[in-house]
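README, section 4: Worked example with a bound small molecule

Sections 1 through 3 covered apo chains. Here we extend the same pipeline to holo records, where the ligand is supplied as SMILES alongside the sequence. The molecule in this example is 2-acetamido-2-deoxy-beta-D-glucopyranose. Nothing else about the input changes; the structure line simply encodes the ligand pose together with the chain.
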Amino acid sequence: MLFKSSIAAGLLAAANAAPTTTTATGSSSASTSASASASSSPFGVYSYNQEASINSAAVASVASFAGIPASEIPGADVPVFPVVSSQVNGTASHGPYSGSATTTGAVKTTALGSEIPVLPPNPVETGYVPNGLLHNPQPVPYQPAGGLGTNGTEPVYRVQSDFDYESILLGLYQEWIELDLFHNILATFNESDFTAAGLTPSDRFLIEFMADQETGHATLLSNLLGGPGGATPQCTYNYPFTTVHEAFDFTQKLTRFGESGVWGFQAHLDSREVAQLLDQSIATEARQQMIFRQFAGLFPMPVWFETGIPQSWAWTLLAPYISSCPSNSKRLAWQNFPALTVLNQPNSARINATQGFFNETAGFGPAAPSSDPPAGQNCVGNNVTGFDCSAGISQNRSIALSYPGRKVYLEWENPGKPVGPNNSYVTSTSAKAPQFVLWVSQLNATYSPLTNITTTNGTNYGMTIQPDVSTYEGDPAINGTMFIALTDSNITYTAFNLSAVNPHVAAGPFLYQAG
Ligand SMILES: *[C@@H]1O[C@H](CO)[C@@H](O)[C@H](O)[C@H]1NC(C)=O
Ligand SMILES: *[C@@H]1O[C@H](CO)[C@@H](O)[C@H](O)[C@H]1NC(C)=O
Ligand SMILES: *[C@@H]1O[C@H](CO)[C@@H](O)[C@H](O)[C@H]1NC(C)=O
Ligand SMILES: *[C@@H]1O[C@H](CO)[C@@H](O)[C@H](O)[C@H]1NC(C)=O
Ligand SMILES: *[C@@H]1O[C@H](CO)[C@@H](O)[C@H](O)[C@H]1NC(C)=O
Ligand SMILES: *[C@@H]1O[C@H](CO)[C@@H](O)[C@H](O)[C@H]1NC(C)=O
Ligand SMILES: *[C@@H]1O[C@H](CO)[C@@H](O)[C@H](O)[C@H]1NC(C)=O
Ligand SMILES: *[C@@H]1O[C@H](CO)[C@@H](O)[C@H](O)[C@H]1NC(C)=O
Ligand SMILES: *[C@@H]1O[C@H](CO)[C@@H](O)[C@H](O)[C@H]1NC(C)=O
Ligand SMILES: *[C@@H]1O[C@H](CO)[C@@H](O)[C@H](O)[C@H]1NC(C)=O
Ligand SMILES: *[C@@H]1O[C@H](CO)[C@@H](O)[C@H](O)[C@H]1NC(C)=O
Ligand SMILES: *[C@@H]1O[C@H](CO)[C@@H](O)[C@H](O)[C@H]1NC(C)=O
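The generated complex, written as structure tokens:
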């Protein structure tokens, strides 16, 4: 009993252990205490309850169910830390922002260059001989030499650099919208709407449970950021869906960029401890993403690997759905690229997804869902194996949603447009005129030529051909929800250095529904 509870308490206390000062923007000295003074932060004070407590009623209920005294149940006398409180839940304020921003742009400091150079491999990394033998003395029996954070130092669960802080802050913005979105889906539609899409009461409870998971994730990330002094509150959101299928289509895309955004940076974090806990939340998010694909009647996982994307890609995808944030919110350092749209996006609610019309999307933004097609062309509730996209554990789609060689028509904006919370961020690019479409999926980042470029009234149009590339034999790389962006060059990048492409991104990313 003592053993177990001291581990748990130690972990949580460490996660709650907050910095007394932070140099995130070189300007703030934020305290973790809920009573930090307003003058110490340019964004004002954000507080939430961090006091662990014992819920006596819950403990009594457990003891009563077990039929033994609470004092004999290990852990029952250990105080539990509360979750950060949610400001927006389900039905409360949603919709677009109609004000003007008082602050604009990403947070920034001196930039030392305009591009990260592409360098040869570090020679140290080609030296280890992987031949099955041990080459160095073992620190203790059964533990091979090496690894990071393996020498006995006590784990410190907090961000360690601007890179860490801004990455986890982006993650927190993502957790907050998911918490609101999952509640909002339940609040927006009634039981018969869900039943028509193939969802049972147990399925609806699963959505509720996934929302609860998000309160836990928001709490964890708030603590990794150093508690109230480093965290940011929940915002107000604006969603592009009108039907249940559209809602799940949007949500499977939103959770896709939430998950892929983390896979893009977690291996680069300075804090291995933060990466550890973050991964344990994103493993849950990955399950959510698959469940929303199932609710949308898509094949649950049509790929062998899930991809990672740069933070600025995730922020570009997320920002259009945040209408406003409280004035004490922390601002992000990431870039918002000009918006990219696929005009002939495959419509997952169609029996034949590519049979749709141009602009067959509902709402707005780079993760806009496709609209519900008319009866007869709609696969929701179409009880024919292979042609059904009602919610299900697996729906094999006899007509693939896309195919290599498909002409993909594109539209993109010029930079300089206000986006994101309070319209306070501005789209930008440092790229020259785009010439390529970058397709990021699974383990691969591949280019196709951008052709037939025209400009009408300040909006740009072009097309490309969907490539045919594989990770390994038998696994076409382009399937599921693809990240595509326009670039001015076709420099080769791979999973671990993809963010170096950012200075070459002219527009995007957009989420192409390849399968
Ligand atoms: C939802 O938000 C409202 C207003 O902020 C609050 O009064 C209510 O307690 C919240 N409900 C839940 C279930 O969190
Ligand atoms: C343990 O490893 C870390 C790097 O992972 C290093 O900074 C630290 O000095 C090491 N501590 C000891 C006691 O060797
Ligand atoms: C459920 O909501 C839909 C609109 O989303 C409406 O047409 C229908 O009448 C509602 N059904 C019930 C039982 O309230
Ligand atoms: C995607 O994967 C599904 C399931 O294996 C398959 O039926 C479909 O043809 C694939 N789509 C593409 C574009 O390769
Ligand atoms: C699906 O639609 C596309 C585009 O209209 C068409 O080329 C294709 O033949 C259709 N497939 C089937 C199986 O109907
Ligand atoms: C699609 O929308 C774009 C503008 O967003 C417009 O220029 C184009 O004509 C539309 N295409 C169709 C087929 O409606
Ligand atoms: C689907 O069709 C099968 C066979 O035609 C039938 O047994 C089943 O009840 C139908 N399911 C629904 C949900 O309508
Ligand atoms: C599943 O769909 C594929 C096409 O993507 C098809 O080749 C296969 O026969 C289908 N399998 C079943 C069991 O329906
Ligand atoms: C693209 O341009 C080529 C050559 O300029 C032309 O042959 C082709 O028809 C165009 N394609 C579309 C879809 O406009
Ligand atoms: C050009 O764009 C502006 C602003 O979006 C719009 O008001 C105007 O009607 C457009 N003109 C044409 C010819 O489409
Ligand atoms: C895709 O990624 C795999 C794994 O990194 C690599 O072996 C393969 O060459 C890549 N394929 C292409 C077309 O880039
Ligand atoms: C880059 O584009 C050029 C010109 O289109 C082409 O010759 C070259 O093969 C491409 N390289 C890669 C890595 O795709």
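What to look for in the output: Residues 340-373+401-513 form one domain. Helices lie at 2-16, 56-66, 162-188, 191-196, 201-224, 244-265, 272-295, 311-318.

Section 5 describes how to batch many such records.
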